[in-house]
Design goal:
Elements (H helix, E strand, L loop, with lengths): L3 E4 L2 E4 L2 E2 H8 L3 E5 H14 L5 E6 L6 H9 L3 E4 L2 H9 L7 E3 L6 H10 L3 E4 L2 H13 L4 E8 L21 E2 H13 L3 E7 L10 H20 L6 E3 L16 H12 L5 E4 L3 H4 L3 E12 L4 E5 L8 H5 L5 E3 L10 E7 L8 E9 L6 E4 L20 E6 L2 E6 L19
Parallel strand pairs: 4-20, 5-6, 5-13, 6-7, 7-8, 8-9, 9-10, 9-11, 11-12, 12-13, 15-17
Antiparallel strand pairs: 1-2, 2-3, 4-14, 14-15, 14-19, 16-19, 17-18, 20-21
The structure holds ligand LLP.
Amino acid sequence: MEAFRYRADELHCEQVPLQRLVNRYGAPLYVYSQTHIVGQLQQLDAAFCRLDRLICFAVKANSNLSVIRALARSGAGFDTVSGGELRRVVEAGGDPRLCAFAGVGKTSPEIEYALRLGIYCFNVESEPELEMIAAIARRLRRRAPIALRVNPGIDPHTHRYVSTGKHESKFGIPLERALAVYRAARTLGGVEIRGVQMHIGSQITSTAPFVLAIRKMLPLIAQVRALAPGALQFFDIGGGLGIRYRRERPPTAAVFARAVEPYLRGLGLRILLEPGRFLVGNGGVLVTRVLYVKRTPAKQFVITDAAMNDLIRPALYDSYHEILPVRKPRGPRRRMITADVVGPICESGDFFAQGRRLATVATGELLAVMSAGAYGMVMASNYNSRPRPAEVLISGRHVALVRPREKVEELTDCEKIAAWLR
Ligand code: LLP
């Protein structure tokens, strides 16, 4: 992760030492590198430069307003999955006309909001949803631009919780049904066919599943064109491009583009991509302070002030995150230990690493949980009544606190004691 590097044994984000950030903003702390995030977008965009393309950042991966703003300024569109995400894009200055709206459970108020904003497209996941969108559009005297999210029925060989393109998944419309649904869409007033969409899963580390899925979709694209001549404008190939957490060797943007481009070039359609993790994953870390080092006869535990409520990926998916000392130990302190790195929460699942080889650490020292820019803060909760961490954005030597740390007092602000208990 080039954005995070040691200089004179001090881990930096771009030009700024992480230690200095914690001195100022406390721990645990999310730190993001704008240069890395925008650089990833530019790499992907350059890799697809021979095609008409729109890269729609999957806001669910990191929805901080400054992250969205930085990407919007660099020309990104957005893949959103709720009215809340759409609102964030608007608030951050993103263009709603470059927003796709996906998700299996869009509500009527969300559909209405998206229609009024004039979004790029609804990625429709079922027939009842299509009818709902059409009805709302007719009531508002608008036409809703739609693509069907088609489930190509392939196995992307990733964690089962983030695999979405298999037959048994809740997502999308089965490939075999899709043409019939497009046919139905043509006869419904209120919707306009614009595209075909797929998304097969997340953290995919080879090009083969993408190629396979795209190839399976091509006959459908031809059939939809025959059905509705001139209607199709785009093919959205989804997100899911993996990153390196440990020893994975995911394709680079260029390798990925080279693998899929031959199947996309001749289509004459705009190609949409929906990367989340690829843009932000290795652009963020979670810095945490060691509270205690606890030895039991069986094990050694490094207890940190961050916990599963701050970063749930290890608990939920057994994900690997590298853990680095913010200050590299020298001399005899370089001795290694094997420990579980755990948080203060009352659950055995509250760990960042188990049986991990680490340099010796002591109370008060800082650790960086790496590759935490995607699905980190966005999945954080207040479990155990813990305030969520602050977020800082770095650009070169510039530092901005882009979300202050929650205060314990705020956690009960919106709660009320029931009248009969007063
Ligand atoms: N498009 C759609 C329709 C999606 O459902 C997703 C992610 C993306 C794009 C972006 O996928 P990416 O490029 O980030 O792989 N919380 C899990 C990941 C859940 C992914 C959900 N959908 C994790 O921490 O690994």
